[in-house]
Amino acid sequence: MKELVSFLHELHDHNDRAWFDANRRRWEAVREEFRTFTEGLIDGIASFDPSVKGLRPQDCIYRIARDTRFSPDKSPYKTYIGAIVAPRGKKAGYAGYYFHVEPVVDERLSMGSGLTAGIYCPEPVVLRSVRDEILDHGAEIVEAMNEAEGFRLNTVNCLRRTPTGYPRGTEYDALLRQKDLFVTRPMDDAYLLAPNLLERVIGEFRRTHHLVAILNRAVQFAYDEMR
Questions:
Q1: Residue 184 pairs with which residues in a beta bridge?
Q2: CA–CA separation, 66 vs 37, rounded Å?
Q3: CB 96 within 8 A of CB 212
Q4: Measured between alpha carbons, how far is 161 from 178 in angstroms, rounded to an integer?
Q5: Residue 67: phi, psi to the nearest 5?
Q6: Among 8, 47, 72, 168, which one has the highest count of C-beta atoms within 10 angstroms of its own C-beta?
Q7: HSE of 202 in the Cβ direction (CA atoms, 13 Å)?
Q8: Strands of 96-101's sheet in order across
Q9: Helix ranges (DSSP H) in 47-178
Q10: pLDDT band at 106, cuts 50/70/90?
């Protein structure tokens, strides 16, 4: 990952098409390195979560080009790279395992590298199903989050009040207010550049499998209801 991290650092300082075109061969080399890593990640996760078997790296890796159509920031490229290993790939809307590489250049603007497991920005019908799962099986979800040792629930995107249609004041009220439901753990440079990175990441994600499986139970129920 050393060359990838170095490339992303430089891209942060030279985020324009001219620099990128001049360094395209470097990009192609580090992209291939990341593709190979993602391939190994898919195989490793599939060993404990068969729902991701058969995925290809291109099903999981997000493009580095930014969509600037509706953003005041017209920088053409992301200064990070990520891959989501989830059933049916990155566009299917299922919960999954996300690997994110982002060098910290400015702590105010960069979230840094990290691992994430769960569901992000679900469609309204899926979010309702997840909240129903919390209401019916909250103890199991809390147990699954406790099993994900080293991960913490991300609480940035949540409602101030319990959503309409759900009881207030239950022991799972904080979970019901979540607009996403995922746990995260950071990766510093020492972690990211370790020679056994792939094995460590697979081991970390293994501890989150129970949570992902519960969430995908809710996602599948929502999709079945939509048919």
A1: 116, 152
A2: 22
A3: yes
A4: 10
A5: -90, 105
A6: 8
A7: 17
A8: 81-85, 96-101, 114-119, 181-186, 152-153
A9: 57-60, 124-147, 173-176
A10: low
